[in-house]
Design a protein that fits this description.
Helices cover 45% and strands 14% of the residues. The protein is built from 14 helices and nine strands. The chain has a five-stranded parallel β-sheet, sandwiched between helices. The chain has a four-stranded parallel β-sheet with strand order 7-6-8-9, with helices on one face. Helix 7 packs parallel to helix 13 (311-332) and helix 9 packs parallel to helix 13 (311-332).
């Protein structure tokens, strides 16, 4: 097992430098936002009745994050679809944003084609592939930098979508929010980078807590639910481990009962509760009672608090901490965080 306080020899375990890519998130966010501002999407001829964002895996999380950030101000309903089928209401008054980093995601291509058949306006966020070709002929392409794993391209997928929302008048101007988020991410990198020892490093501490256990990641409120989902998927892909995610208060109506599983199994899970800072007294009381009852059977329980004032900063601070923890956990387990062989095998078996 690799010591997380001696990462001088991490290259053999991380030849693609996933850790370096994760640490670059604040710089990526600034770069992507500048690029999106320099090449804004075209104006809409008419306001759509509703908005549908389509994507899978790491290409879908940007829409989740923005839906959570702006759910109090977004000017129209936003549905996030993770499959090839679109809701029946999609038609000429719909705007469909199809996000596929590679441009080759089968489900996203299927949904984009369905959007065009329904007469919807199509916007693609992609680095190329068949999706860029399709949207280039029949819609709008917001091109992004290529060459990364989709899950490591979050900033490049989020910035053009946010810039489009601003351009179309769906959300207020966001320059200040993006600048604050990048500054908060800089602070997380300083506090949780590879040179900071475990005793003072929140991401390394999380990796040690997770260890050989199964993480259960719980959002303290719907405001940070996308961050909990992101932690789960990053733990899956980077650390090659099963993980759970859910959100308060919904989980107090079902999942809490699941902690009644045999004690030896409950002890093999660790619960991480993500707090966004906007939880009220009733929310915090509910979380405390859940810790004292259902979660007392867990092998460990920890709380992780978001940083920043704005919703984007708070969400992305949690995202980056979880991304780092997942890579450190892969190191701890002696694994390369980049390959996703199981996904590749399923794609080969599923065909085009």
């Amino acid at each position: 097992m690799l010591s997380l306080d001696d990462l001088s020899s991490r290259t053999p375990r991380d030849p693609s430098d996933m850790l370096g890519t994760v640490l670059a998130l604040p710089a990526q966010l600034r770069e992507a936002w500048r690029g999106s501002a320099a090449s804004p999407p075209p104006a809409l001829a008419a306001a759509p009745a509703h908005l549908v964002a389509v994507g899978m895996g790491g290409s879908a999380i940007a829409a989740d994050l923005l839906a959570a950030c702006f759910r109090g101000s977004l000017a129209l309903p936003l549905a996030v679809v993770r499959e090839g089928r679109l809701p029946a209401y999609v038609g000429p008054n719909s705007l469909v944003i199809a996000t596929s980093y590679s441009g080759e995601t089968g489900e996203t291509l299927e949904a984009a084609e369905a959007a065009l058949r329904a007469g919807a306006r199509l916007v693609a966020i992609t680095s190329g592939g068949r999706l860029a070709s399709l949207a280039g002929r029949h819609g709008t392409v917001l091109g992004v930098r290529g060459g990364l794993q989709p899950r490591a391209a979050l900033a490049y997928l989020l910035a053009p979508m946010l810039a489009a929302f601003v351009r179309w008048g769906m959300v207020p101007p966001a320059d200040r929010e993006v600048a604050e988020a990048a500054a908060v991410l800089d602070a997380v990198v300083r506090e949780a980078g590879p040179d900071v020892p475990t005793r003072a490093n929140p991401a390394k501490d999380l990796a040690e807590r997770f260890g050989e256990r199964i993480p259960a990641v719980y959002a303290g409120s719907p405001d940070v639910a996308p961050a909990a989902r992101r932690w789960k998927t990053q733990l899956n892909e980077n650390a090659k481990t099963l993980a759970l995610w859910d959100v308060f208060p919904e989980l107090t109506h079902n999942e809490v009962v699941g902690w009644g599983l045999p004690a030896d199994l409950a002890g093999r899970l660790v619960a991480a509760i993500l707090l966004g800072g906007g939880e009220g007294p009733a929310d915090l009381h509910r979380i405390r009672v859940t810790r004292e009852t259902a979660l007392r059977r867990a092998g460990d329980v920890c709380e992780v608090r978001a940083r920043g004032e704005g919703a984007l900063a708070r969400l992305l601070s949690l995202v980056l901490l979880g991304d780092l923890a997942s890579v450190y956990l892969s190191y701890r387990r002696g694994l390369d965080p980049t390959p996703v062989e199981a996904i590749d095998a399923v794609k080969r078996g599923a065909g085009p």
